[in-house]
Amino acid sequence: xxxxRKVLSNGLRVITVPMPSFExxxxxxxxxxxxxxxxHKNSGISHFLEHMAFKGTxxxxxxxxxxxxxxxxxxEFNAFTGKETTGYYIKSAKDKxxxxxxxxxxxxxxxxxxxxxxxxxxxxxxxxxNLYEDMPxxxxxxxxxxxxxxxxxxxxxxxxxxxxxxxxxREDFLSYLSELYSASNLAVVIAGGIDSDAxxxxxxxxxxxxxQFQTKAFxxxxxxxxxxxVLIKQKQTEQIHIALGVRTVSIDSPKRYPLSVLSAILGGxxxxxxxxxxxxxxxxxxxxxxxxxEFADAGTFVSTAGIDPKRIVEAVEVMVTEYSKVSRGExxxxxxxxxxAKEFLKGHLVLDLEDSRSVSGFYAHQELLEEKIENPxxxxxxxxxxxxxxVESVGKEFFTEQTLNLAVIGKxxxxxxxxxxxxx
Length: 424
Description:
With 424 residues, this protein is an alpha+beta fold. 45% of the residues lie in helices and 18% in strands.
């Protein structure tokens, strides 16, 4: 898979990824803007803006005008917000790429931000927040990040604070756009059955008028931790959901590859160590998984599980025992286990990239967040290069007792008991 990258005169970055066998194409516009750029006064506005983009423009005054157009061409459209990026995309038949670019540019350049629509959408956002509160298997990630990053934008929920959401006005949206939505802070990626030259000309047609300006920078993290920490969110649930993790590396570190392989070994599938020890051997949980996540200036390795409330102590003990092996360099990884972990990661990447939407996201994230763009073959090669020694090394470096963090959702009062278990 190969790509072509060009930059418009206004600084907008354009990447085209031809996929000749595809009859579909995805147009993704991604901004280097997310919840970590927010303040206490506008917490949640990145996500709120993503909703409002579909609520009407000067050319297409209502949400129905936009959705009817996209539905009428058989397209799929949506948006997503993260800590560091926000994306808007339309996936359609390949001959509808121009319409997709027209609609997305119109949304970003000419959204109305009708005060009446803003007021209505506040209710939608608040119900979305309520939805996530009732999904502890998803919410545990937010609680874990709150424990890691505290009262900073990185520790706040992406969906925002209900009281702040209720206070947001049209002027707040316009101010936020003027701080972050510069042409030079956007990447437009089109992947699928396209011709690169013709597609680039269309992007230039619809986005060349976008203004370029100096954008706001995020507040760098100051990570300081000298002892294990526990955060419990009390909630009546049938399961107790836990997240145990450590601090690791930023997105530009080469150590992310051995950490990813380690995540596959510990919790990357039904034959992983934690899955076997927690679910198969002891019947403590239904789901068990590990991930290695990176941001611009921070990272974390975390394992999550949904546990029988009566056996949470046993489950945490098992997880800590496996983490202790990592910390002491006593994993004893076999050649077979290393190969299986690599194939697990590579296989999932290959499967993801069978979809033009995933391909567009793969390149857009790299364009906005990383120092260079790697093709999938490059990533597969980096995974293949990981040795047992590299996995053991990052484990010993980052799995330290003083940076252990345990987040919990459920009815469990004895936080001190859990904290006493966090010993490597």
